[in-house]
Write a structure and sequence with these properties.
By secondary structure, the chain is an alpha/beta fold. It binds zinc ion. Zinc ion binds next to α4.
Length: 547
């Protein structure tokens, strides 16, 4: 059967088909155009990034009788006979340490090329040469004849002696970007009529970690066993969890969806997913989330502290492999720590506001946000008011955001949204309170259920101020319309994120379970000096934003 493995079949035959190394290619093309060919090149970089392919295309191009914009013409006699050309000498330093080959080079190097313009020596994995081979190579690199070109390739540039490096023009090949890999894979599956799920293709690109050769080999191996490649084929073949599954796992923790969490974990166990790979990928996810938690104004995943401790606890699991413990057991227990415990709710930070039960008829202006009052901008904020605020504790607020977004989505509908959106301008118009009006004037309702609604506000400072005044806003709104709404505010970025998660969950039939809101305010944490500082911080921010 005339079957060629994909990475050989799709090996580039000119510069245009070398992926993701545009800078290097443009320099090499230029050198050919100007006929400024060096005597020695060294290509360094990770495996599968195109070093050897580029070396071959370059060797072909400099010998081509009618080179084109893309290097070799692939039509002339020199191009057609390139593969059999005895003047192109390939040495793999990894398979032997090369002393004999290098000696042979020295012996033959003076002889002019028999068939072409240049004799080209391509030495792959050059760092593997023995010391004596390096010394022999060095001699030839010092004064090579004009008709000789060396192209050295290595995945470990540090191991190449500086004396060699200093005699070569150096090019550093980079990992091929995920997007470039995906594009190339798409091209190949199209050419080969390989049926593959989009997610599976993306996962192959992800696993290949910037190496095209690996990506094509993986595609090769899996496509020979199945008529249509699915994501499960890829992950079971490679014992790796997909990026989407890792995202889902994290979502389970923040939405407290234990059932779906267990489903995913059982699936991993059945597919015998390598737990080390799982941990590695989950740690990558946590790093991303740690950055988000510090970057996004109202981030509502795990708190940074939780992300950090989960990361360390997971990393530690590898230490226990030797004592014969099923690793999944530990992973599961560790992750479960970050879910909420239903029976211990009362011990959790409490968020609900007392005035819902006590319901003062008219919220007093002072309770809304003393720091926004123009009459006394320099006066001390009144500490008692902060007891009404959900909390100055970022964790408590994050928790509240998580719960309310979840509860809103649990029963959200277009009808509720429309109803609320219709009321909103009327509500804003009716506001006599300037402070609240300032907060809400740029805000809009973006999702609603019968009792929950998400407010989107354009500015992060306003988002956090709205969230500090949720009780008052709800009070005004509910009194006016005789309803019982709970609000929560998000920044546009966070809303976008929540919205995407919601859509994904809908697609995957993930159900939102209604979460109880805690009922008491954590008074003991109301350390006075902290509150004063927080109030002052908010004051500064608010002024900047509102003036
Ligand atoms: Zn040619």
């Amino acid at each position: 059967m005339d079957y060629k493995v994909l990475y050989r079949k799709y090996r580039p035959d000119d510069f245009s088909s070398i992926i993701g190394q545009d800078y290097i290619i443009s320099i090499l093309k230029n050198a050919i155009k100007k006929e400024q060919i060096s005597h020695a090149y060294i290509f360094s970089g990770p495996r599968g990034t195109g070093k050897t392919s580029t070396a071959k295309v370059f060797a072909k191009a400099i010998n081509c009788l009618e080179p084109t914009e893309n290097g070799p013409c692939n039509k002339c006699e020199a191009c057609k006979t390139f593969k059999e050309n005895a003047d192109i000498i390939e040495i793999d330093a990894a398979s032997n340490n090369g002393v004999d080959e290098i000696r042979e080079i020295i012996n033959n190097i003076k002889l002019a090329p028999a068939y072409s313009k240049y004799k080209v020596y391509i030495i792959d994995e050059v760092h593997m040469l023995s010391t004596s081979a390096f010394n022999a190579l060095l001699l030839t690199l010092e004064e090579p004849p004009k008709h000789v070109v060396f192209i050295l390739a290595t995945t470990n540039i540090e191991a190449v002696p500086i004396t060699i490096l200093s005699r070569c023009q150096r090019f550093d090949f980079h990992k091929i970007s995920l997007a470039n890999l995906i594009n190339r894979l798409k091209y190949v599956v199209e050419q080969e009529n390989i049926a593959i799920e989009e997610e599976a293709l993306e996962e192959i690109a992800y696993i290949s970690d910037g190496g095209l050769r690996d990506a094509l080999s993986i595609l090769d191996q899996i496509s020979s066993n199945t008529s249509k490649i699915t994501i499960n084929d890829v992950i079971s073949h490679f014992g790796s969890a997909s990026k989407k599954q890792i995202d889902d796992l994290y979502q389970c923790i923040i939405t407290n969806n234990i059932n779906h969490f267990l489903e995913i974990m059982n699936n991993f166990k059945e597919l015998a997913i390598d737990y080390k790979l799982l941990i590695r990928k989950f740690l990558e996810k946590l790093e991303e989330e740690a950055i988000n938690s510090k970057k996004l104004s109202s981030y509502n995943g795990l708190s940074y502290e939780n992300i950090r401790s989960l990361a360390f606890e997971l990393a530690e699991i590898s230490n226990y492999i030797n004592i014969n413990i099923e690793p999944y057991l530990l992973i599961q227990i560790t992750m479960l720590k970050y879910f909420k415990e239903p029976n211990l709710k009362s011990k959790e930070p409490e968020i609900e506001y007392k005035e819902r039960e006590q319901a003062p008829k008219e919220p007093e202006i002072e309770t809304i946000n003393p720091v926004l009052e123009e009459e006394k901008p320099n006066s001390e904020p009144e500490i008692k008011n902060f007891e009404e605020i959900p909390s100055s504790e970022p964790n408590v607020l994050a928790e509240l955001i998580k719960i309310r977004v979840n509860n809103c989505f649990a029963n959200a509908s277009k009808e509720y949204l429309q109803e609320l959106q219709n009321k909103w301008p009327d509500f804003i118009d009716s506001l006599n309170n300037k402070a609240i009006l300032n907060l809400l004037v740029d805000a809009s309702i973006v999702a609603a259920s019968n009792e929950y609604a998400i407010i989107k506000s354009e500015y992060s400072e306003t988002v956090s101020l709205i969230n500090q005044n949720l009780a008052n806003i709800a009070e005004l709104f509910n009194n006016k319309y005789n309803l019982n709404y709970h609000f929560i505010a998000l920044s546009p970025e966070d809303w976008q994120k929540e919205r995407n998660t919601y859509i994904t969950n809908k697609k995957n039939n993930v159900k939102y379970e209604f979460l109880e809101e805690p009922t008491e305010i954590p008074k003991k944490e109301n350390n006075i000096s902290n509150i004063e500082q927080t109030a002052l911080d908010i004051f500064t921010e608010a002024q900047i934003e509102i003036e």
